[in-house]
TrEMBL record:
InterPro entries: Alliinase_C, Alliinase_N_sf, Ethylene_sulfur-biosynth, PyrdxlP-dep_Trfase, PyrdxlP-dep_Trfase_major, PyrdxlP-dep_Trfase_small
Name of the protein in its database record: Alliinase C-terminal domain-containing protein
Organism in which the protein naturally occurs: Rhamnella rubrinervis
Residues annotated as domain Alliinase C-terminal: 25-383
Gene3D superfamilies xref list: Aspartate Aminotransferase, domain 1, EGF-like, alliinase, Type I PLP-dependent aspartate aminotransferase-like (Major domain)
The keyword Repeat is assigned to this record: no
Pfam families documented for this protein: Alliinase_C (PF04864)
GO molecular function: carbon-sulfur lyase activity; transaminase activity
Key words, A-Z: Aminotransferase, Membrane, Pyridoxal phosphate, Signal, Transferase, Transmembrane, Transmembrane helix
Keyword Cytoplasm assigned: no
Assembly notes: Homodimer.
BP GO annotations: amino acid metabolic process
Family recorded in the similarity comment: Belongs to the alliinase family.
Length: 386
């Protein structure tokens, strides 16, 4: 049984969008503004008030290894993972970060030996998240160094492998790809939530990164969290954040805690007068509708193709469903070598394959923008003909 899109969360139909072909449609970033619609519906449910005398100290919980972690934020992280069933939190240390971006750097710092004769190699299978190479190398660290595609990596010695699942940009579920032992894995599960993909297993890795940005759409709060098994690694990640920013905004953690609480409440009280459907159901339907419209427009164009995804049983929704990723990974089928430039010629801004370590006949388009922008994109696609 596949979930079908409902009308309760309808997308503006392309036919309703005005498009003279001149407007620039920017779908380059994965800015999750699509979610504004849900949070507008929720009205004051996530509003918090912080008096001037509150949250003044640097410290949140001096008994916790991560001393700047707000207990209420930690509580809601554990609760939400339990409600969704996407990650094991027992026996884990939670480290909070200014987005999962800061935690990514904290993880590289924590996992690299301090006395290594050369920098630790950092790899990920292509197409990989375009920020990994630049974030790894921009400070020219002596501790770690970007070493490219995990599939062709064959340098002896230790390495860090980034496993992004579902993957940004192509949306596929992933496992480690380096064909040998001796690697340390960092799982970036930013998109392992039920609006994007079937929750088919409870993640149980050594070091896992999540972010509020892609969970609830609150990218601007700048909060992410890591679930870390090894106490020494968790301590070193905490040390990195101490050296980098002396902790993480308490205001942001409190706001994130409230948002995660409302998401968990919406799941537990789905079908009640308070929450007719959960956050994930509402946005699952929205994504399903967008993907259906996109596939129709892409097929009609004859110019592009999209990957197909195997359906799987989702423990959260209780149905078999198809993945519907946060990005569309389009391939140009018209002998255009540079798909990014081709789209730019039609005033559509998107990120070409080269940024992700693959051929430029691929391009990544955000599926998480506001209705009017996404609708304009569909309308513009309908003007393409092979
Ligand atoms: N990992 C992946 C795979 C992402 O796509 C993103 C956001 N584009 C991030 C990490 C960073 O998220 P943030 O810093 O907003 O938490």
């Amino acid at each position: 049984r596949l979930f079908l899109p409902t009308s309760s969360s309808s997308v503006t139909a392309p036919s309703e969008v005005e498009d003279d072909g001149k407007r620039i449609i920017n779908l380059d970033h994965g800015d999750p503004t699509m979610y504004e619609k849900y949070w507008q519906k929720m009205g004051e449910k996530t509003t918090i008030v912080i008096p001037g005398w509150q949250s003044m100290s640097y410290f949140s919980d001096v008994k916790n290894l991560c001393w700047f972690l707000e207990p209420e934020f930690a509580k809601q992280v554990v609760r939400l993972h339990k409600v969704v069933g996407n990650a094991q939190t027992e026996g884990r240390h939670i480290v909070v970060g200014t987005g999962s971006s800061q935690l990514f750097l904290a993880a590289l710092f924590a996992l690299s030996p301090t006395n290594g004769s050369e920098p630790m190699s950092v790899v990920s299978a292509s197409p990989y998240y375009s920020s990994y190479p630049s974030m790894t190398d921009y400070q020219k660290s002596g501790l770690y160094k970007w070493a490219g595609d995990a599939q062709s990596f064959n340098k002896p010695g230790p390495y860090i492998e980034l496993v992004t699942s579902p993957n940004n940009p192509d949306g596929f579920a992933r496992h480690s790809m380096v064909n040998r032992t001796g690697g340390i894995l960092v799982h970036d599960l930013a998109y392992y939530w039920p609006q994007y993909t079937p929750i088919s297993y409870q993640a149980d890795h050594d070091l896992t990164l999540f972010t509020v940005s892609k969970t609830t759409g609150h990218a601007g709060i700048r909060i992410g969290w890591a679930l870390v098994k090894d106490v020494e690694i968790a301590k070193r990640m905490t040390k990195f954040i101490e050296l980098n920013t002396i902790g993480v905004s308490k205001d942001s953690q409190l706001r994130a805690a409230k948002v995660l609480k409302v998401v968990a409440d919406s799941c537990e009280q789905s079908g009640s007068s308070e929450y007719t459907e959960s956050f994930f159901e509402f946005n699952y339907h929205l994504m399903a509708q967008r993907w259906q419209q996109l596939r129709e427009a892409v097929n009609a164009s004859g110019v592009f193709s999209l990957p197909g995804f195997p359906p799987a049983y989702c423990n959260f929704h209780g149905h078999i469903l198809e993945p519907q990723p946060a990005f569309a990974w389009l391939r140009c089928e018209n002998n255009t070598e540079d798909c990014e430039s081709y789209l730019r010629g039609h005033k559509i801004l998107a990120r070409g394959g080269r940024h992700f370590g693959v051929e430029p006949n691929y391009v990544r388009v955000s599926m998480l923008d506001r209705d009017d922008n996404f609708g304009a994109f569909l309308k513009r696609l309908s003007m393409f003909q092979s």
